[in-house]
Amino acid sequence: MKEAPRLLPLLLCIMMLPCLSGCWNYTEVDDISIVAGVAIDKDGANEKIQLTAEMVDIQGGLDQNQAGFKMLSLTGNTIFDIVRNMISMTGRKLFWSHAKAIIFSEKVAREGLIRTVDWYSRDTETRSDVFIFVSDEPTAREILNLNSTTKTIMSFELAQMMRDEKYTSSAPTVEIWDFIDKLETLGNHAVAPLISIHEQNGQKNERVSGCAIFSKDKMIGKLNGKETKNMLFAKDGIKGGVLAVNDKNGVPTYSLEILSSRTKVKPKVVDGKLLLQVRTVTHTGLDEVMTSESFSGYETISAIEERAGQALKQEIQSLIRKMQQEYHADIFGYGEIIHEHQPKMWAKVRDHWDDEFAKLDITVDSKVIIESSAKTSRSIKLGD
Amino acid sequence: MENTGASRNSGQAECEVSSSQPLSLSIEDNLALVQRIFSNDGTLRVRFIENNHGAPLRCCLIYVEGMIDRTLLQNGITKPVMAYPFKEEERSNPAELIEKLRTEIITLSDITVTTGLDELVEGIVGGKTVFLLDGYAGALSISAQGWETRAIEEPTTEKAVRGPREGFTESLLVNLTLIRRRVLNSDLKFVFSDIGTRTKTQTCICYMESLASPEILAELQRRLARVEIDHVLDTGYLAELIRDEPYSPFEMLGSTERPDAVVGKIMEGRIALLIEGSPFALTLPYVFVENFQAAEDYYINYYFASFNRFLRVMGAFMSISIPAAYVALVTYSQEMVPTLLLLSIATARLSVPFPTVVEALIMLTIFEILREAGARIPTSIGQAVSIVGALVLGQAAVDARIVSAPMVIVVGLTGITTLLNPRLTGPMIIVRLVLLFAAFFLGIYGYFFGLLGLVIHLMSLRSFGVPYMLGVGSIRPQDIKDTAIRAPWWDMYLRPAVIGARNMKRKLPGKRAGGS
Hints:
The complex is a heterodimer. Chain A has helices spanning about 5-15, 80-85, 85-90, 105-110, 115-120, 140-145, 145-150, 155-165, 175-185, 225-235, 295-300, 300-325, 335-340, 345-350, 355-360; strands spanning about 30-40, 50-55, 70-75, 95, 100-105, 130-135, 190-200, 205-215, 220-225, 240-245, 250-270, 275-290, 360-370. Chain A is α/β, with parallel strands linked by helices. The longest helix of chain A has 27 residues, at about 300-325. By secondary structure, chain B is an alpha+beta fold. Chain B is about 45% helix and about 10% strand. In chain B, helix 10 (about 300-330) packs antiparallel against helix 14 (about 405-420), helix 12 (about 355-375) packs antiparallel against helix 13 (about 380-400) and helix 12 crosses helix 14 (about 405-420). Chain A: This is Spore germination protein KC.
């Protein structure tokens, strides 16, 4: 009996260990329905939520090279209610860990996303690294329904698209945790990429370009692809992409591939007034010259750099003006930067930051540096 | 060898003749005694020799057919005894005559005078030729042994691309010679004893006096003295009888067929144990990392040797982990599998009737059946096994949707990685199954719980007082020089810790004979 008091804590520890292993349960992998992505719409008739899930269909088995898909749509009052009711249609529990995309219709976004996003971020079976989109079409489900024409799992394609977004920088990549984080911080406004259907020659394709702007959790406006790129410049979010530069006659001639870009935002207080300096430094490579003239003789590199910097500066400036005047929305996160650098000033403006932002004096300075001209140093010359 | 104690000889008590009976003067009486002991033994040969060149002399040779070299017997005993012209005065004094025979007439070496019957019998069964002289109450026990042995061949279980190709044979003396030839130093000791109350198998402890730890040596001798068994046919018997931790699946004594490997171990301060009739030598103390060492590691480039060691360690880990990790991931933690991989596993598993763990058990069992079948069949029908294994059971089972294709890959990988470590095959099967069940019941958590248990078990083992995990987890360079890597020889200047503690220094640190 003397041993008992010493062994008891040990036994208790061992008994408690299984509880620490988190959420798990025994399921065979072929007994689950893997959700690839969801679209959330408002059912027109009765204002209920309509949830459309794109599911991976493994029924094709080994004979098919590619897994198929299955669409499931259900309306209900709450999201979780719909999700659980879906079991009655699939016969299997939905498996959310591999979902890649969540698409909201514009109507849902304009009414406020907190209502619909909460379940996804709260539930233990879903992941918070799912990509978030706002549909530029009337409904969100028609984007997912595109899979019947492309014959691929649309959500996985969208996720792949977001991973390659760094080469174009025409849409922000936003994961759901990031979106919620922006909603919760003062001095920052959330954005989400816009997704539309691009139709040409009867061929329908999805296209991610531009972004939706949110005020609190409600969508208030849209930016197109080019504006989105300028927004990314202004908030230090550029990872790549192309800068098109005109020649001295105003004809688009040069393409600069963005190798790296850094944006520094400096808040200053001059005479009790808040000033913001935005400086961008972009390293690029000259990747296209649409002229047969030798560009080094035709125009010097520094001239191209100069013109590119000027153009970029103007574009960024006009976007910032637009945000200040039209939307009163600080999508760049400048409020947070002021909070960091000028905490005293921030304390004064934080409660009415949106109005302050609209009045803020922001100067932009852009510098573009051309580092190389790819494989050749001259233009293509026409032979005689 | 002579004084093995009275209890050891209890087997002979069944004979009517008392073992301690002295020999008589009459050659016929003595012969009758011996023949009664060897009744129903058709291999006993008796050959009378008479010499009538001088004073007549009657004597006889007793030996066991097949244990002696006939040429030696003829040239060394029969001929000289027959031809020697004995004088009358010599004939009249048997004691002097025996002395004369021993020193002047019989040309063979190793002759002893025996007077007791049991010594004489022991000599005969040991292959000696016993020389009885009429009128002398004693005998000469002459070594003229010679029997057929297997030639020295390359050991089949431990092949090396580079390095010595000699392997031990079943003959103890040949084996000892193989060791002795590599160590021309009187410091190398061979201590004989016999084990097995009925077989009296010769065993030999072999060590370097100045290197081996006296405590470990004493412990080994104490354990050998405690062994009670009537027969020993292979060192495997002894390994099981004298090992530590009798219930652990892991080997606690090393065994090798290579004399160079034995010498290497002896030179580290270890002790080797060989027995007559077994080509496998035991080495002790044994530590865990020795499972991953191959003799060849020490002969080839150290980068390559270290790479091979790394492969073996990884192979052992994979071999115990792959089925368990697969089951845990596929049945519990599907979120941890990359999406596309999960899809292809799910697709493959569709319409497979069994749960994943049953699938794993079926395939692992089939693999073990194939392994066991392949190990003992003649090589000529070995191909049939591989065809049945690969085609019928692998391909057809997948086509028939009885098992899924990923499971075949999992079991195939498990099997291949097992072959990397022949010494660990046995323990790994057990560990693999334990981990598999742990993963089945508790998922990833259970798998890690099992691994933890394995580490705790390994850490608790001792071989002759030396920690089994010696050197594992140490950060001292001289401790890890010969574990998962094989350091260059010029950098292995100390013997292994604890085992070589008696004389740590192997060479001067960092001293290279070649250019810098």
